[in-house]
Design goal:
Asp_de-COase-like_dom_sf, about 120 residues, eight-stranded mixed beta sheet, autocatalytic cleavage, mainly beta, lyase, Barwin-like endoglucanases
Length: about 120
């Protein structure tokens, strides 16, 4: 049997932009992506702390150490600049493997999205 578990989580990060006219996705600072073990094109769930919206999109790489978290395309309608969101990705694992799996969970600085 296989189950889905949290693979990566960026907890409480500030939205720096929302670009309705861009192809849909979420742009994430490359440093945050690396620390959270996310890759470009990976499917993620977004939870907006400010308004309760939950939706899915995919990741694109933002400038390293920029703090960028931009929702693009239709997802831009579900957030506003300065909203606080949680970004979550999942992995499908065998049940026994899932019991010992340890996800990558980050708690960035909410002021500037830095890891320090």
């Amino acid at each position: 049997m296989q189950i889905q578990v949290v693979k990566s989580k960026i907890h409480r990060v500030k939205v720096t932009g929302a670009d309705l006219n861009y192809i849909g996705s979420i742009t994430i600072d490359e440093a945050l992506m690396e620390a959270a073990n996310l890759i470009e094109g990976e499917k993620v769930s977004i939870v907006n702390i400010n308004n309760g919206e939950r939706f899915e999109t995919y990741v694109i790489i933002g400038e390293k150490n920029s703090g960028e978290i931009t929702l693009n395309g239709p997802a831009a309608r579900k957030v506003q600049k300065d909203d606080i969101i949680i970004i979550i990705s999942y992995a499908t694992l065998d049940f026994e493997e899932a019991k010992t799996f340890k996800p990558w969970i980050l708690f960035p600085n909410e002021t500037d999205n830095s890891l320090t």
